[in-house]
Design a protein that fits this description.
Helix content: over 70%
Number of strands: 0
CATH class: Mainly Alpha
Bound molecules: MU-OXO-diiron
Low-confidence stretches: none
CATH architecture: Up-down Bundle
CATH superfamily: Ferritin, core subunit, four-helix bundle
Radius of gyration: 17 Å
Strand content: under 5%
Amino acid sequence: MLSKKLLTKLNEQITHEFFSAHYYLAMAAYFKKEDLDGFANFFEVQAEEERFHAMKFFNFIYDQGEEAVITGFKDPKRDFESAEEIFGLALEHEKLVSSLINELMSIAQEEQHYPSISFLQWFIDEQVEEEAGMSKLLSTVKRVGEKGHGILMLDRELAARTFTPESE
Ligand code: FEO
């Protein structure tokens, strides 16, 4: 059985994950406007991944015999100015999500709630990948700059990303 504290935090995480999807979709919109469709694809796939994360929390709550509470969230930022700014913000956001997942894990461990510990371990591992991926792309964008051949090559590379739920 989930404690009230853990259930509340798990429910809040559904909202954080859906907010992440919206935030990344706003980033995709910036790249669409810039005609960088590969970058837009990367963030569209990222948004799908975040919805998948949200649904994992949603389903886990029901698997534990509890009920999900769906709430809203603030508008995401929309006034982006560069690819470098976006990847910097995306990395910052993933670090925030990692801290939320770590907090959830700490509560689960304090309460010795083993199903939650096992469930959350997937997210701990996932956040390592999420942060590393964003960090690498931020470095690459800094290196190639906002204009020229490099950014177009990277755009082509990012166009190939697809959503694969089992490995995400
Ligand atoms: Fe759901 Fe990008 O972490």
